Amino acid sequence: MGVRVPVEVDLAVVGGGGAGSLVLTALARRAPPGLRVAVVDPVRKRGQDRTWAFWGTPGGDLEPMLSASWSRMEVTTPAAARVLDLTPLRYAMLRSAPLYERAAEAELRLGATRYDAAVGALDDDGTAVTVRDADGRVVLRAAWVLDSRPRPPRRPGRTSWLQHFRGWWLESPTPVFDPGRAVLMDFRTPQPARGVSFGYVLPVSDRFALVEYTEFSPAVLGDAAYDAGLRGYAGLLGVDLAALRVREVEDGVIPMTDAPFERRPSPRVVRLGTAGGATRPSTGFTFSAMHRQAGQVAAALAAGRPPVPRPAYPGRHRWMDAVALRAWDSGAVGGPEFFDRLFDRNPASRVLRFLDGATGPVEDLAVMRSSPLLPMTAAVWGDATGRLRARWSRR
Predict the structure, then answer these.
(1) Nearest to residue 325, comparing CAs of 264, 258, 254?
(2) If you write DSSP's letter for every residue of 99-128 in order, what string do you get?
(3) CB under 8 Å to 190, separation ≥6 — which residues?
(4) What is the pTM of this model?
């Protein structure tokens, strides 16, 4: 019996979650003719396993897949309750099922080869990448690999927190929710000793909404603590849980760290999603950056360039995030106070564009001026000292 020659493709997408699905849908719209694509993932994603929320302008390729969107958003702190007009932006919700369906359709249109295998190794020789399964067997050879599997950062961060949450999809027999606005952050929840907590409401209708309890803190909680947080927040909303039905439960854990992620671990392997730096360290938001990465990959291939997206956020934003994380972690600045000042002293559209990495230096200075000056200055010095110590320790 002869030796099997591995299939050769131009592009292998490793991982079929949100980042991989967005890449496939972008390629189906603008990939160059004849592009040979493979998808390698042991699980064929389908159904409602997660919900993404993001802000942007109406229209675009995601519009037909949205479950809901809002032009008004509520941010509540102990100091004030604000209903913000997001114009010209809007806050939008995308559930996973329509994206996975669109990605499956894109695979067919692209004529992609599917491998239901777990990837064990990516051997990059500088001219192509050999993709191996968990047992070391060759799956295929690819000119480029886009890898969206979770990966740890290149080295530990000076501050490493998590955004972790539990959400209940609540259904009511009578009108309960306000479908005209989303609640982005409600800081009336009891605050942890070290961290930040808030409630979150995404109403699809006046009878159906996702209600979440979220924490920014160093460690996850147990099931009972999340459920207690949700029950307490429902009480703050005035929602009688005995009269509602929990149709679905969503849990999640997202890194919030100033640790660097390796966007390109070898010449022809490109990481996407959280492993590729798409998660904003100060908030855990990821979806908008994944969507940008997917569009940039498709545009590069259409232009005959390597499929390497730009960094998800400007370097100055990553530095500002590191300072904010340090200030929260040290207790110098409270999360509710920080976000209260941020939304009180800036237009909502500026805050959202900043959190999305889309503001320029002048607007960034305005955002910095709205932060508590003395505690943030101390955090800046602490961050600088930490960077110097880390640099000397690596010598």
Answers:
(1) 258
(2) HHHHHHHHHHHHT-EEE---EEEEEE-SS-
(3) 197, 232
(4) 0.90
Question: Which of 59-63, 277-281, 321-325, 375-379 shows the lowest mean pLDDT across its residues?
Answer: 375-379
Q: Return d(Cα 321, Cα 280) in angstroms, integer.
A: 8
**Which pair of structure tokens corresponds to residue 293?**
């990465």
Whole-number Å distance between alpha carbons of 250 and 228: 15
What does the alpha-carbon distance between residue 274 and residue 317 come to, in Å, rounded to a whole number?
Answer: 16
How many CA within 13 A on the CB side of residue 108? 5
Q: What is the pLDDT of residues 303-338, one digit of tens each?
A: 999 999 999 999 999 988 998 898 899 888 888 888
Q: What is the pLDDT of residue 379?
A: 52
Q: Rounded to whole angstroms, how far apart are CA atoms 57 and 349?
A: 11
Q: How far apart are CA 167 and CA 148, in angstroms?
A: 24
Q: List Cα–Cα distances, 172 to 50, 186, 248, in angstroms.
A: 21, 21, 13
